[in-house]
Amino acid sequence: MTYCVGLCLKDGLVFLSDTRTNAGVDQIGTFRKMSLFQKDKDRFFTLMSAGNLAITQAVKEILLQGQLLNGKNLWNVENTHDAAVVIGDAVKQVYDRDHEALEKAGIDFNCNLIFGGQIKGERPRLFNIYSAGNFIEATPETCYFQIGESKYGKPILDRVLNFDTPLNLATKCALISMDSTLNSNISVGLPLDLLVYEKNSLQANKLVTIDESNPYFKMIHQLWGEKLRAAFNSIAEPSWSGATPSKSIASAAKKMGSVPIHRAGKAVKKVATPARTTNKIGVKKKVVTKAKR
Length: 293
Prior knowledge:
single chain; alpha+beta; Glutamine Phosphoribosylpyrophosphate, subunit 1, domain 1; 5-stranded antiparallel β-sheet; 5 helices; 14 strands; globular
């Protein structure tokens, strides 16, 4: 399994990936999932991958070789959007080559990528590229992407992050997101690769590999757990009596009634009741209907 997160912010980009891959609890491997592409002071790209390792490595090799895809590669495209198209074409090329063999073996074509960077003269951009080779781009309203085991690290991103978040604060947010994932899923593991890309730098000034000895990540791991427990304990417990309105959990919902309770009870027997009819001359005649046994 994998967890990678990419942030596209006003001041630059943040990329964070783990390095664990495994095919079972007793087959754990460490493979780097972050790749960097740099051309002088002209362009700088970062690629992070999740999915079938053989597929993602094949895609990366096509890109590293500078293979032309419809006449383009990462080194000659005019903008970052076209670079994302090149990566999508590389994914399609691997699919065309391998998908039949994978289907026969009962293996899904699983390849998800986060790609971002900057070409001189344009703003930093971030893309999420799917197994079909198509992609979407991050926007100020949706400024981050996750691939792999994303659910544990998503809440902190949603609560804290926005397009104007400073890079240092966003880096802390990404690391807490990763720590939450590491704490809940053993298929995501250290070391981590972290890149903080500053807008218009066109180089990797802040790049680090983080393992269990990293002092800042150790501090985050310890303090985040402590602060969560302190915040949890500081919240009042629910009141069922209604004595404190602000803590009352027994208040009726405004749009729905309470859940009906169906009680078990004895079946009611049908009781015979007399019925009255009228004869032809208007005299009422009493008729008794007997209950069937």
